Amino acid sequence: MSTGEARAVPRRILWAAFVGGIVMRLLASTWRMRQVNRSPMESIRQCGRPVILALWHGEMLPLLWHHRREDISILISEHADGEIIARVAHSLGYPTVRGSTSRGAGRALLGLCRVVESGRDVAITPDGPRGPTHQFAPGALVVAQRTGAPIIPLRVFAPRAWRLRSWDRFLIPRPFSRITVSYGNPVYVTAATPRAAVDEAERLAMLMGDAAAAARA
């Protein structure tokens, strides 16, 4: 269940989520997935400690499929498109925390911290829900500083893919694509305060770039 409040959802949103989920399953079932450097993250998980996955908004689709049924809570906006994504995510086994840096930010950060403190992983798109693209907003850094959980930069490389004409150039790998998922090394935020943690944004953006380079290697 989502941590957001229950509310009526327009039929068009329900229909779009239903159809989108079916299309995604049909498409994703043909993908061939390859992983790079996942073992550092798994070492942390095996010790019973949670991680914070950081991914760009435009690379969400293949990652939703790749990490399905892992009980990762995802931060998803309360906009209409976020409702569609949330419902598709629920169908794949993801709990959600609703909100963003622009809407419901305080509640969203509190919800994420509670999930991490309970020992479960979370996933955040630090450039979502509206961009600017590949700009690392502070939410993941604040959660890492408050909880002590490491951030795992997460990137995707799919040489055969469609790109939507959206602000994030949303990535849709083509049927039977070979997709590489690259995991950066764990990043601990040791700043004394949440305000000081925000200063780490540029470094995290660079580490996201390093993970992308590893995916392409």
Oligomer description: single chain
Class by helix and strand content? alpha/beta
Number of helices: 8
Strand content range: 15-25%
Got a strand count?
9
Overall mean pLDDT stands at: 91
Integer-rounded radius of gyration: 16 Å
Q: Distance N terminus to C terminus?
A: 38 Å
Provide the succession of SSEs: HEHEHEHEHEHEEEEHH
Q: Quick one: overall form?
A: globular
How does this structure look, described?
40% of the residues lie in helices and 18% in strands. The chain has helices spanning 11-28, 39-46, 60-66, 80-91, 105-117, 139-147, 194-197, 201-216, and strands spanning 32-36, 52-55, 73-76, 96-98, 122-124, 151-157, 161-163, 171-173, 178-183. The strands form 2 sheets. It has a 7-stranded mixed sheet, with helices on both faces. Strand 3, helix 4 and strand 4 form a beta-alpha-beta unit. Residues 1-6 have low confidence and may be disordered.
Search tags:
217 residues, 8 helices, seven-stranded mixed beta sheet, two-stranded antiparallel sheet
Record the SSE blueprint.
Blueprint (H helix, E strand, L loop, with lengths): L10 H18 L3 E5 L2 H8 L5 E4 L4 H7 L6 E4 L3 H12 L4 E3 L6 H13 L4 E3 L14 H9 L3 E7 L3 E3 L7 E3 L4 E6 L10 H4 L3 H16 L1
Helix pairs in contact: 1-4, 5-6
Give the gist of this structure.
By secondary structure, the chain is an alpha/beta fold. The N terminus is likely disordered.
